[in-house]
Amino acid sequence: MKNKTILLLFLLLSGTFVATAQIGGKYAYSFLEKPISARVAAFGGNVAAINDNDLNIGYVNPSLINEGMDNSMALNYVNWFEGTNYGSVQFANTFEKAGSFMATLQYMDYGKLDYADQAGNLAGTFSAYDMAVTIGWGRQLDSVFSIGAAVKGIYSAYEIYNSFGVAVDVAGTYQSPTGWTMSLVARNFGTQLTTYTGNSRDPLPFSLQAVMSKRLDHVPFRFLAIYDHIEKWDLTYDDPLNPSGGIDPVTGEAQAKTGFSKFGDQLMRHIILGGEFYLGKNLTLRAGYNYRRRQEGKIEDKLGMVGFSWGFGVRISKFTINYARSAYNLVGSPNYLTLVFDLDSFARK
User: What distance in Å separates the CA atoms of residue 290 and residue 326, rounded to the nearest whole number?
Assistant: First the structure.
């Protein structure tokens, strides 16, 4: 009864976040919503519900931080777009009475940017970066329920402008006896403590996500489905040059979606699908599809692979290496590289 009460409290907190959080196209610390690891990026989103002791899953879903991650580390590097790179380092430890904890340090470097006046005359360069320190906690309540939370300290500096902020994630997970793993995750509920210019505070990139996965019984495959942004129905980006997102192939004019077509488009903007195929114990192939990313990044006469992502994981000796590539637009596709290892394995004889 006590465990069910704790889980209910977490769900109520998530509902409170939905009622108070601001969502929109303009917000601070947008780097918080980017996937930091290759495995999660390969699924096409930035959350997952897979309970297999992966630190990077624990980062995006703190209810899956568990004692199996004890004394493990993960190193992540992402080659984003031109001149921009980011990475993170993670470490987990378990305390018998308090639960399992994980610390994450992440850093996003935008490289050297040019000073320029309104006429385009260059006058030197400046730097810009974001960083965050996250402390996550997870605890197994019983054989099927687990909960978790994370607190983030955030710092951002663009030239002479800087900002401090804090954010909180909370999550709850149910693991059924038949192999389903289902999670509800509220991410990045928080505020700016100081703003860049001293003006009003910008909202943070809050999201409430439902995610489920299952490894099939007779096929070495796990599928994963995400419903992103439960708190907001219409995720359509209104392009002022093409507000509908569609072009009539005959007239070349913008087409407005109506009726079932509009409903289906808006529904699919919430859905992210992914999966991984296991080739033995040491090799895994992964792929994902993000409909909203495809709609926002595509060009009508050349769709390409926008919205799709793929990757693989390989186990070599004491290390797990994950790689992924995801297509955000036709210009470029970020590359993700992750190295995971158990420190205890180096001490074993």
Answer: 10
SS3 20: helix
Please provide residue 315's backbone torsions phi and psi, each rounded to the nearest 5 degrees. Answer: -100, 120
DSSP-derived secondary structure letter, 63: G
Strands 246-247 and 254-255: antiparallel
Token pair in block for residue 322: 């994950």
**Contact at 8 Å (CB) between 167 and 173?**
no
- Identify whether residues 258 and 148 lie together within a single domain: no
Q: What H or E segment, with its residue span, contains residue 188?
A: strand 180-194
Nearest to 174 by CA among 61, 255, 18, 24: 61
Q: Which residue bears the tokens 């192999």?
A: 179
- Domain with residue 170: its CATH number is 2.40.160.40
**pLDDT tens digits, 263-320:** 999 999 999 999 999 999 999 999 999 999 998 888 777 778 889 999 999 999 999 9
Tell me: do 255 and 228 sit in the same domain: no
Please state the φ and ψ torsions of residue 38, each to the nearest 5 degrees. -65, -40
Domain final position from 269, 289, 316? 269
